[in-house]
Design a protein that fits this description.
Number of helices: 3
Mean pLDDT: 87
Number of strands: 12
Radius of gyration: 22 Å
Largest sheet: 7 strands, antiparallel
Helix content: 10-25%
Number of domains: 2
């Protein structure tokens, strides 16, 4: 399950009428007359109830010729956290898949304000009146997607966005969502490996990720090219697992 990838500290502020201890500034969305005492801060690094929506991780994106990323980055490139270029698509990105979750996402027109519905099972899709196969040459209203938690090897020396160290290399966690052609090209490759070559653990495999430009229908798009590069040794496998508990 991909429900606990991200980590963040925090505790709800407790309002007091007349603080007797020094106070600290409160968040901008708290009214000015509210104050937080030091006694209300956590005594341990992590306290309180943490939900999946509390956490934020970088994302791994493949830049297309249209969309917001294309205004800043070269199409065909892989971008980390929408900030730095990992590769122009020709140089392999080295990554390790740690966890995957398959779901079904509703198709909505690009640029619209409507958020797509996402279901965990095909039964739920059918109950909502949807399907995933082409009918009468019409696009299905839902299609499978794969959400993957991956460990990306940094191509930079000592970059702060890659805080995990093993040997002489640095690594960073990222969420990678594979939809449409990306699901077909790379998602199915990962799913197949999870049942065969890497059935004893996805974290044992190192992947080489590049991209290529293909014509699909009337349009040209950049698609991922994912190849199983090698098998990790026991030391690296233990390191990778330690990052996700």
């Amino acid at each position: 399950m991909l429900t606990s990838f991200k980590r963040q500290e925090g505790a709800a502020p407790a309002a007091v009428a007349e603080p007797v201890q020094p106070v600290i500034p409160v968040a901008d969305d708290i009214q000015d007359h509210e104050e937080t005492s030091l006694s209300s801060l956590p005594s341990r690094p992590l306290e309180g109830e943490f939900l999946p929506q509390d956490f934020v991780l970088p994302r791994l994106n493949l830049v297309q010729s249209v969309g917001p990323l294309s205004e800043t980055f070269q199409p065909g490139a892989y971008v980390y956290n929408k900030e730095v270029t990992l590769s122009d698509g020709t140089q392999p990105v080295s990554l390790t898949v740690l966890r995957i979750r398959k779901q079904y996402q509703e198709y909505v027109a690009y640029g619209g304000e409507e958020m797509p519905r996402v279901f965990d099972t095909l039964e739920e899709v059918r109950a909502a009146g949807g399907w995933i196969d082409w009918r009468d040459n019409q696009r299905p209203p839902f299609s499978p997607i794969l959400n993957a938690l991956v460990l990306v090897k940094s191509p930079f020396p000592e970059h702060p966005m890659f805080p995990h160290h093993f040997g002489e290399d640095d690594y960073g966690l990222a969420l990678w969502t594979l939809r449409s052609t990306a699901f077909t090209r790379a998602g199915k490759t990962i799913i197949t490996a999870s049942q065969f070559a890497l059935r004893d653990g996805l974290h044992l495999g190192e992947w080489s990720l590049t991209s290529r430009r293909e014509k699909l229908g009337m349009n040209f798009v950049h698609v991922p090219v994912l190849r199983h590069a090698t098998r990790h040794n026991d030391e690296f496998a233990a390191f990778a697992l330690s990052l996700v508990g």
